[in-house]
Design goal:
Layout: E1 3-4, E2 9-13, E3 20-26, H1 36-46, E4 63-67, E5 69-70, E6 73-74, E7 79-84, H2 106-113, H3 129-147, E8 150-158, E9 161-162, H4 185-193, H5 196-200, H6 209-218, E10 228-235, H7 249-258, E11 263-268, H8 271-274, H9 279-282, E12 286-288, E13 294-296, E14 304-305, E15 308-309, E16 314-320, E17 330-333, E18 339-342, H10 353-383
Antiparallel strand pairs: 1-2, 2-3, 3-7, 4-7, 5-6, 8-9, 8-10, 10-16, 11-16, 12-13, 14-15, 17-18
Helix pairs in contact: 1-3, 1-10, 3-10, 7-10
This protein binds flavin mononucleotide.
The site of flavin mononucleotide has 21 residues, from helix 10.
Length: about 400
């Protein structure tokens, strides 16, 4: 469906070549100061044409607030956001009238709906993500103002070129059970300090100049495309978010991330590499934190245990496939089964990860916002009850603990 969230509900609308795309956001708290410019910052970061890895489609992606905000303040009513599609060129796609694009969504949309948008990717196009990014900017503004939440995503690999010291693929070294290889101290330091300004210094959005340069060189082939990964960290999320058992925090995060077009993989914390090391090395021992609460000395859990946030940094990685549309001729079949070759025309992203960065940040903000409103509703409801004094000590925190 086109709606995500329970209490912070985001509905996106629009196809790649229709009049406009956008979102309705229901459940934003009233009284939040919000202007179009607050939303525009992230939309501008998502725009195409900012590096040679992205499509040259020229869109300003200027957001227009339609409802829910007056005098720069949210009313608590549904917020309508609209972005015009200005650089539509339906004729770019005429070959695909005959051919479903291999590994794109043309054929599956027809199988499902029996009808599809006449050109471009329709709803499966990345234009749809404009509504997500706009909604995420609103969630993020509230989260930052009230809780100091910081969300930063960056490109951690393009093809086989990886940012050093990020969570990497499994090592072939059978005897190496050192978790430090997967989640190194340098990586943990990076995610605890990285800013969007640092990320945006490189057009590839990989915050390591030498690796960024190698990524740029590796994507010079204008006839082909390549995949990559985006790593994201969410800092200062309060503990207690997530709704076990089916709506565990990482399940909501995984759902949100895997709904982004072109995603193929999601891992949180130590991820797949963490499966290869024993518990004695993988466990996160508890330590006392300022204010009397417990924290963890390491953070292989990625900030979530039992499906509930534990106040540590939440970090995760998403795998994006190579975009399906390539100008190189491919042997395939037409809709009627006739074999043939397709060399797609039109404007396409050779690699989606630099543009996926603000989309990942937006979906992260939407998930945190929704889970926060749910937990706050529960806490408010519980706080209205008289205190219970009859429980055995094993059911509650001991005196002095927080
Ligand atoms: C930012 C972004 C830009 C994209 N640009 C393209 C593109 O130019 N060409 C293309 O074939 N797919 C592109 N995609 C991916 C398609 O939208 C997506 O792969 C396609 O709809 C098939 O869906 P699936 O990959 O989710 O299965 C892009 C995805 C994102 C997130």
């Amino acid at each position: 469906m086109s709606t995500y969230g329970s209490l912070f509900r985001v509905t996106t609308y629009g196809e790649s070549h229709c009049a406009s795309v956008g979102a309705i956001i229901d459940g934003c708290p009233p009284g939040l100061q919000l202007t179009e410019q607050d939303i525009q910052v992230q939309l501008t970061r998502r725009r195409p044409g900012q590096s040679n890895l992205t499509t040259p489609r020229n869109e300003k992606d200027q957001v227009h607030i339609q409802s829910g905000i007056e005098h720069g303040v949210t009313l608590g009513t549904p917020i309508g956001l609209l972005v015009k599609n200005e650089d539509q060129r339906p004729h770019d796609y005429s070959e695909t009238d005959l051919y479903p694009r291999p590994s794109h969504a043309d054929y599956t949309y027809l199988q499902k709906y029996g009808i599809k948008a006449s050109s471009g990717g329709g709803r499966s196009s990345a234009r749809e993500t404009i509504g997500r990014v706009a909604a995420g900017a609103i969630a993020e503004r509230y989260l930052k103002q009230v809780y100091g939440v910081e969300i930063v995503a960056f490109v951690s690999s393009v093809g086989k070129i990886h940012l050093p010291f990020t969570t990497g693929p499994s090592s072939d070294d059978q005897d190496n059970d050192d978790i430090g290889d997967a989640v190194s101290p340098e990586f943990l330091k990076l995610i605890s300090t990285i800013t969007r300004e640092e990320v945006d210094k490189q057009p590839t959005r990989c915050p390591h100049p030498e690796t960024a340069e190698r990524m740029t060189q590796a994507t010079k082939d204008a006839q082909d495309s390549i995949g990559g990964t985006v790593t994201c960290v969410i800092r200062n999320v309060p503990g207690g978010l997530g709704e076990p058992v089916f709506d565990k925090f990482e399940a909501k995060l995984g759902h949100a991330m895997l709904s982004i077009p072109a995603t193929k993989a999601f891992e949180i914390g130590s991820g797949f590499r963490g499966t290869e090391v024993p518990g004695s090395k993988h466990n996160d021992p508890f330590i006392a934190r300022d204010g009397g609460k417990l924290g963890t000395g390491t953070n292989w859990s990625g900030g979530v245990q039992g499906g509930i946030t534990n106040s540590e940094d939440i970090y995760f990685r998403i795998g994006f496939k190579s975009p399906a549309t390539i100008s190189q001729a491919q042997q395939t079949a037409q809709y009627d089964g006739t074999p043939g070759t397709l060399a797609a025309r039109g404007r396409h992203d050779p690699c989606v990860v630099p543009r996926a960065v603000p989309i990942v940040e937006a979906m992260a903000a939407i998930v945190v916002m929704d889970q926060l409103l749910i937990q706050n509703a529960r806490k408010t409801a519980a706080s209205l009850l008289p205190p219970v004094t009859t429980l055995p000590p094993t059911m509650i925190l001991p005196p002095g603990a927080k």
